[in-house]
Structure formats: structure tokens, C-alpha cells
Amino acid sequence: MIKVDKISKIYGQGPASFKALDKVSFKLEKGANLAILGKSGSGKSTLMHALAGLDRPTSGSIAINGKDLWSRQQKEIDAYRNQMAGFVFQDFYLQNEETVLENIMVPLEIRGVADRKPKAYAALERLEIKDKARNLTRHLSGGEKQRVCVARAIIGQPEILFADEPTGNLDSKTSEKVEEILFKLNKELGTTLVVVTHNEDLARRFANSIILKDGRIIAHEGKELAA
Ligand SMILES: Nc1ncnc2c1ncn2[C@@H]1O[C@H](COP(=O)(O)OP(=O)(O)OP(=O)(O)O)[C@@H](O)[C@H]1O
Ligand SMILES: [Mg+2]
């Protein structure tokens, strides 16, 4: 269960400050899937970063399975991010000078998982990008990078998977494949799925959704969601 209670995020200070989130509250049941919608600049990525333990909200609280996230020691926040959460970034955050294989094995290295290579190849195979395993990431196309990013996020079977525009750079066929993988994880492994998307076809597939505008929730829908 994810419980968000009146989180706000203010970037910068003084006259140059900007309120990107304004008292956002909602509850999402464990194992549910949620689409976060809203125009560019509405606060979607900011919200996802707060949920995933990547960027601290200015005020308010987020509890994961009943345990407050941002009041924990940094070490515990890191552990949550590394062990419970998987993240597909809007702008990838891949190590461009490393190979695809090296990039996607990072979460397993952090956790000290054995047999990393077979797991890595299996994830790459799912995303149909196995033939690029030994390539330097900087030589990949945008869509290929996106799929590597998804592979890295799912490799450790996180309890919660966050994806920020996971199909933004993909053609419709590849994006369908990525969607299938995300929903399969949600359905079969009970992975809680939280996805930012502009794609209306993709948004319709989610059981729950919220729409952000100027950092506030202006609409919400879904049985596993309370706002
Ligand atoms: N580090 C920052 N410093 C100052 N302002 C920021 C910072 N990060 C984001 N913002 C501002 O906060 C607002 C929300 O940004 P955010 O990235 O959450 O939007 P978004 O809904 O994800 O947009 P997009 O659909 O374009 O990705 C934007 O106006 C953005 O310019
Ligand atoms: Mg964004």
C-alpha cells in the first residue's frame, strides 16, 4: 500500500521558487496499477521521484506498506529504492560508456545477487534486445535505450515498478510489447505498477488513474485508489 499525505514540492527559494506539487494525497492498494496523467509541467515526474525515494518532498508524507519513507535514515531510503522499487526514467539515466549488459546488472550487483548474467540475458530477451547486450549504450537508438531502461528496472523483480513515459520513444509495436511486459508483471507477480503516460491508449488500460494539473490532483478514478 502506498499512502501519500499532502505532499508538496517547492523547487528553488525565494522569488525564484516554484511549487511543483501542492498537497497531493492519495492511497493506492498493493498490487494495483495506476496511471498518472497531466500536461507537461503538471508535476508527474516530481511525484514519481518522491514516491520512488529519489527526491524528497518539501512537506507531507509518503508511507509504503505502513512505513513512512522520507523520515527514514538515508541508508534505509537507499535500501527501499534499490530493493523494493524499480524505476524507468523519462531520460534514461544509463551509463553511456558501459555496455547494455553492465547497465542492466547494476540493480543485481547492489543487492549482491548471484547468477547475474543469465538473469540479465533473460530480461534482455523479454525486451527483444538481447543482440545488443555487448554494445556500448551510447550507440543505441532512443527506443533501444528505453527498452534497456525497462530491462534494468524489472530485472530484480521490484515490489513497486515506477515508469515515467516508458513508451514515449517507442514505435507502436515495440511500445505494445513493453506494455505487455509491464502489465504481465503487475498481474502475475503482483508488482504494483505506477506509470506516467501521455499515451491515451495506454492510459485506458489502467484500472486506476489520477490527473494532475499545476501540481494538484484534479480528477481520479479506480477501485484500488482513494484520493
Ligand atoms: N529542479 C527543478 N528546479 C526548478 N523547477 C523544476 C525542477 N524540476 C522540475 N521543475 C518544474 O516543476 C514543474 C513540474 O515538473 P515535472 O518534471 O514534474 O513535470 P511533468 O509533469 O513530469 O512534465 P513532462 O510531461 O514535461 O515530463 C515544471 O514546471 C518544471 O519546470
Ligand atoms: Mg516528466
In terms of DSSP E residues, the strand content is 25-35%
Q: Give the distinct bound molecules.
A: adenosine-5'-triphosphate, magnesium ion
CATH topology: Rossmann fold
Mean pLDDT: 94
The CATH level-2 architecture is identified as: 3-Layer(aba) Sandwich
User: What is the helix tally?
Assistant: 7
The arrangement of helices and strands along the chain is EEEHEEHEHHHEHEHEEE
Low-pLDDT residue intervals, each spanning 5 or more residues: none
GO molecular function: ATP binding; ATP hydrolysis activity; transmembrane transporter activity
Pfam families: ABC_tran
Domain ABC transporter: 2-225
Keywords: ATP-binding, Nucleotide-binding, Transport
Give an overview in words.
- The chain is of the alpha/beta class and 227 residues long.
- It has one domain (2-226): P-loop containing nucleotide triphosphate hydrolases (Rossmann fold), CATH 3.40.50.300.
- Helix content is 34%, strand content 28%.
- It is built from seven helices and eleven strands.
- The strands form two sheets. A six-stranded mixed sheet has the order 6-7-8-3-9-10, sandwiched between helices. A five-stranded antiparallel sheet has the order 5-4-1-2-11, with helices on one face.
- β4 and β5 form a beta hairpin.
- α3 packs across α4 (116-126), α3 packs parallel to α5 (142-154) and α4 packs across α5.
- The longest helix is centred in the C-terminal third of the chain and has 17 residues, at 172-188.
- The two termini are 13 Å apart.
- 41% of the residues are buried.
- The model has no long low-confidence stretch (mean pLDDT 94).
- Residues 11-12, 18, 20, 38, 40-46, 90 line the site of adenosine-5'-triphosphate (ATP).
